[in-house]
TrEMBL record:
GO terms for biological process: mitochondrial fission. This is Mitochondrial fission process protein 1. InterPro entries: Mitochondrial_18_kDa_protein. Pfam families: MTP18 (PF10558). Belongs to the MTFP1 family. One of its GO terms (cellular component) is mitochondrion. It comes from Chrysophaeum taylorii.
């Protein structure tokens, strides 16, 4: 199930990236340098989504499950199906609580790194509000 969930998440990331890039390319959003601006916008969307929707949640849930498994293994509890399901159940239950903090972390990571790198190229991306 885990590989399938990553497949779904990566499919969503790609679809969102294509959608944002096509909208930026096809619309009249920018006054000049439309292709460069749209490609940067698409790359930004791709990297942010990979970080916020795949990388950070995958790492966080994996670590939580590993800690729970280690705690169960270190305990003297007798193995049973309910106990075996506990790590997965706790991993799934954390999802609603980690989304917003990890989205904010992804935003901060992007602002502190890649967005600083391509900000000089975005100066020509004058948004057309007319």
């Amino acid at each position: 199930m885990v590989p399938a969930s990553y497949g779904v998440a990566i499919t969503y990331v790609c679809a969102d990236t294509v959608d944002k890039t096509r909208k930026a390319l096809g619309g009249a959003k920018y006054k000049q340098a439309q292709t460069t601006c749209a490609l940067i916008e698409g790359l930004d969307a791709l990297l942010w989504q990979l970080t916020a929707s795949v990388g950070l949640p995958g790492f966080t849930i994996h670590q939580l499950v590993a800690v729970v498994v280690a705690c169960i293994d270190a305990s003297d509890l007798d193995p049973n199906p309910a106990l075996s399901a506990l790590p997965t159940a706790l991993g799934l239950l954390t999802i609603p609580f980690i989304v917003k903090p990890l989205d904010e972390l992804a935003e901060q990571i992007m602002d502190a790194t890649l967005r600083k790198l391509w900000s000089p190229y975005l100066e020509s991306c004058l948004v057309d509000y007319d």
